[in-house]
Amino acid sequence: MGKVTFKVLLGLIAMAPLASPFAQTDERYDPDRALEISQAAVGGTIGDYELIDRDGNTVHLRQDYAGKPLVISMIFTSCHHVCPMTTKHLVNSVRAARDALGADSFDVVTIGFDAANDSPEAMRTFAREQGVDARNWKFLSAPAATIDQISNDLGFIFFPTPRGFDHLNQSTVIDRGGSVYRQVYGVTFELPWLVEPLKELVFNRPESAGSIASSLFDRIRLFCTVYDANSGRYEFDNSLFFTMFAGFTVIFAVFIYLFREIRLARRSKRS
């Protein structure tokens, strides 16, 4: 199944009954198998598919989002309960992540997987109803064949029921190279489940490679940007930086002391 934390499993168990807002489920849908397929997609690469945004503009999933981490959420607009809940929770999580990592540090797309009904107009209405107006967040539509390919790349499976769809509630984190980096599960989830993988990607910038100063700066931001459970937000913890600095200072002082003692011992031996 891949590596899934106990907390993630609890989240999946808690949200499994909410995978569809309808009581009747398709016998083909197995939540455990859906999780296996989802986890198996980690490490795979998404294709450069052509989609349409809510304003009718063409978007290429790989080309237009190369160079930045990307979060992909799959929904269907005729869902009146779970998909809106999932999106509204994602809105709050994305806002907190951007406060911690930078407003332009990553992008988000929501894709309507019900190709027959999730038109650009329907996606525009859905976005407005969920209060999503961030400029780095697009709502996209695509033909059924393209949706099937994207779903396969993301490890996202869905089955129609008489009154909706059964599907795993997942948001997928894509790295700069277009590979599936992490899956985040649940109608709601703990903020670190989304921010931690994004933090790892954002603060490992390719442009920092070869530059000691830039690399050190990224390391400091990576280790000092921490989650505060009391406030429910990420903050830059200066104390961790000063603790690290103090530790390096002590180690350097010990090294200088030992170096001097060795030199004195050698001089004494020569005398």
Write the layout of secondary structure elements.
Blueprint (H helix, E strand, L loop, with lengths): L5 H10 L15 H10 L9 E4 L4 E3 L9 E6 L6 H20 L5 E6 L7 H10 L7 E5 L2 H11 L3 E4 L2 E4 L2 E5 L5 E6 L5 H12 L9 H13 E4 L4 E4 L1 H33 L1
Parallel strand pairs: 3-4, 4-5
Antiparallel strand pairs: 1-2, 1-5, 3-8, 6-7, 8-9, 10-11
Helix pairs in contact: 3-6
**CATH-level-4 superfamily name of the largest domain:** Glutaredoxin
CATH topology of the largest domain: Glutaredoxin
Could you tell me the number of beta strands? 11
Percent in strands: 15-25%
Structural class assignment = alpha+beta
CATH domain class of the largest domain:
Alpha Beta
Shape: elongated
| Overall mean pLDDT | 83
